[in-house]
Amino acid sequence: MSSSSSADSSRINAAGTTFVIGLLIWLAATWTTVRTLVNDWLDPNSNYGHGLLVLGLCLFALWESRHLLARHLVQPQWLALPFVVLDSLLWAAAALAHVELVQYLALVAMLPLLVWACFGMGMVRQAMFPLGFIWTAIPVWDPLMPLFQSITALASTYMLQAIGVPVFREGNALSIPFGNFQIAEFCAGMRYMLAAVSLGAFFAWFYLSRLRDRLTFIGLVLVVAVVANCQGDRCCRSGASDAYAIVAGQGSCLYGMVVICMRDAAGVLVWWATCQEYRHSR
């Protein structure tokens, strides 16, 4: 019994040491991409300023799952090594071509590959959330910017119509009797929605156990984030600041109500999630 336990312990130590060494080598080899990523996280004007928080939450999730992870038998998989090599070549090619998006993809994709190679696929499945959650802080979502702009433009159109302001929408441009407005990239609320969805996903994982409840909660958080993003002065002005002030004045009461509703909606979501978890735990 003691010899078996000692063998398991040595196997775990060897796998952990191999993983740490492999991760350090990978971070050193991809240091230029890592440095760019960290600078993006530290940039106050970046859409990924929540990156350090997400990284901390990932480490916390791993710590919370330590007992479940310890139950899995360590089974290193040589089958993962070809994928490790392919991912390394992908990053090298992207670095030579100066394609940052692919560099980020290859950088983070190495994490589950190393876990697979050193600990086995069972460990990857158990650590699926922290390994996937880190993607919410990686700058790979910029191609979705036009989608965020369209969502903001559509939501702004409905809100202006709700306060009785006639509006004509053409793409991301809004025309009202007081002037013309353009939903620029800065006004799309991508940073706001990414951060909201990230925190919503972590809350759903931490407090909810059923997949359906988790997905429902994340969807509700996304809806609240979209509406809250549009309630403020999100429309970038196009030579009509005075006119926009008139519109804002006419709708200030409604916008104030929207702010309160968003605050209350967040509380309702937390209450709903807690009740769902309590009901299913009985």
Instruction: Give the helix proportion (percent range).
Output: over 70%
Query: SS-based structural class?
Result: mainly alpha
List low-pLDDT spans. 232-261
Note the gap between the termini: 38 Å
> How many β-strand stretches?
4
Rg, Cα atoms, Å: 23 Å
Topology pattern, helix = H, strand = E: HHHHHHHHHEEEHHEHH
Instruction: Give the mean pLDDT.
Output: 77
Strand content of the residues, in percent?
under 5%
Largest sheet: 4 strands, antiparallel
The tally of structural domains comes to 2
Q: Order of strands across the biggest sheet? A: 1-2-3-4
Globally, the shape reads elongated
Q: Please count the helical segments.
A: 13
Write the layout of secondary structure elements.
Layout (H helix, E strand, L loop, with lengths): L1 H28 L1 H12 L8 H14 L1 H6 L8 H18 L2 H20 L1 H6 L1 H6 L11 H18 L5 E3 L2 E4 L2 E4 L7 H18 L3 H21 L4 E2 L3 H10 L1 H30 L1
Antiparallel strand pairs: 1-2, 2-3, 3-4
Helix pairs in contact: 1-6, 5-6, 9-11, 10-11, 11-13
